[in-house]
Amino acid sequence: MHELGLVINIVQQIEDYMDENQLEGVETLVLQVGKLSEVYPKYLKDVYPIAVENTRLKDTKLVIEETAGIGRCESCHFVYNLVENNNRCPVCDHHEFSIISGREFLIKEIHAY
User: Fold this and answer.
1) Domain-located, residue 18
2) What residues contact 4, with CB distance under 8 A and at least 6 apart?
3) What's the rounded Cα separation, in Å, for the pair 103 and 33?
4) Which of 46, 52, 83, 94 meets the CB 3.0–4.6 Å disulfide criterion with 75?
5) What is the domain-level CATH number for residue 56?
């Protein structure tokens, strides 16, 4: 489970951001996680309290937005949800695709005070 290391790194980035911008605290942290990113939202939520325990983010609410894994068929160029279609084009049943979105793992918003 590499999620703990990821969250610890994010906490450090947020605290640096707070210092650089002279912020008192962060009310909400919004992360965007793609379905194809190999980062599991459940694990992020599980390790978050541990990662923020002794930091200035200890009272910060974590919100995770999941983005769909979207691909484009290499054969017919149809754009579709890869996860919902088991990586096969629903139009031509082709299994080769290019990924358009879904690999994201980023800090989307910081609601500071």
Assistant:
1) no
2) 47, 50, 51
3) 7
4) 94
5) 3.30.2320.80
Decide if 69 is inside a domain.
Answer: yes
Question: For the chain, what is the total number of helices (H) and then of strands (E)?
Answer: 2, 6
pTM (two decimals): 0.87
User: Would you say residue 93 lies in a domain?
Assistant: yes
85 located within any domain: yes
Give residue-wise pLDDT tens across range 36-50. Answer: 999 999 999 999 999
- Per the document, the length of the chain is 113
The 10s digit of each residue's pLDDT in 11-42 is 999 999 999 999 999 999 999 999 999 999 99
Q: Which domain holds residue 70?
A: 3-10+25-112
**Structural domains of the chain, count:** 1
CA distances from 49 to 13, 17, 59, 92 (A): 17, 20, 9, 45
